[in-house]
Amino acid sequence: MGYVSEKDVNTAVAAQQGMEIVDLSGVEIPEEAINALPSETVQNYQVLPLEYDGKSKQLKIVLKSPDNFRAVDDIKMLMGYNVVPVVGDPEQVDQLLAKHYGGGLGVEGMRNP
Asked: What are the domain boundaries of the chain?
């Protein structure tokens, strides 16, 4: 019906789940965060690493949708990180994914932690 946008729904669901909403306008992502996840993982789960602390192995990732629990759980299990999920605007996430990961690098273009 057009009364509520997808962004409004995501914001409401994120708030219900106690997740932080982030504005990615003008955000510079540190290189250690970018290198914390391989490109293949980022592309498959459509998440953006935002901050990484190597000592505590804490990784803050931006989700396009607050219901992307699979990405959070899989990254915790596969990478061994303490994952802190936040939610961002899908268009902003896509722009930063393209900027930092080049939109679909293959295995030879993967970045490794």
From this structure: 6-105
- What are the tens digits of pLDDT across the range 44-58? 999 999 999 999 999
Q: Residue for token digits 């306008």? A: 25
Q: Which stretches of the chain are assigned E, i.e. beta strand?
A: 21-22, 47-53, 58-63, 82-88
Coil vs helix vs strand at 52: strand
Q: How many CB atoms lie within 10 A of CB 94?
A: 15
Q: What is the CATH number of domain 6-105?
A: 3.30.300.160
Greatest alpha-carbon pair distance for the chain in Å reads 48
Under 8 Å between Cβ of 71 and 5: no
Decide: pTM greater than 0.85.
no
